[in-house]
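Anyone up for a design puzzle?
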């Protein structure tokens, strides 16, 4: 955005980045009462999908690894992608999913 007022001296404005809500990851690590907050917030399966994607996986690999259906793996990955936590890339007949920087920050917050 540009703001202009000829009666004022020039000033540079820029947005300040705020870190993602890392208290969830700390709670997930067991640092807070109540246990697995990430699992309670996202649901156990979706939280497991997110954790599994700390390394890239196809939808089929997610399904096999977590013992869920392909449709379920695809739905969880789609919702995590819509939330900005996962990126997906089509490679022929498969789709490979990986964590975005936001997803990484949620799982592994900077100390």
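Challenge accepted. My sequence:
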């Amino acid at each position: 955005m540009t703001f202009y007022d000829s009666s004022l001296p020039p000033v540079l404005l820029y947005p300040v980045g705020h870190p993602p809500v890392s208290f969830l990851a700390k709670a997930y690590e067991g640092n807070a009462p109540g246990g697995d907050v990430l699992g309670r917030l996202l649901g156990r399966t979706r939280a497991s999908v997110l954790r599994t994607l700390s390394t890239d996986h196809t939808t089929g690999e997610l399904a096999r690894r977590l013992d869920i259906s392909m449709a379920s793996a695809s739905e969880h990955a789609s919702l995590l992608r819509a939330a900005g936590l996962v990126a997906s890339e089509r490679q022929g007949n498969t789709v490979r999913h990986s964590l975005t920087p936001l997803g990484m920050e949620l799982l592994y917050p900077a100390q």
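A detail worth pointing out: DSSP finds six helices and three strands in the chain.
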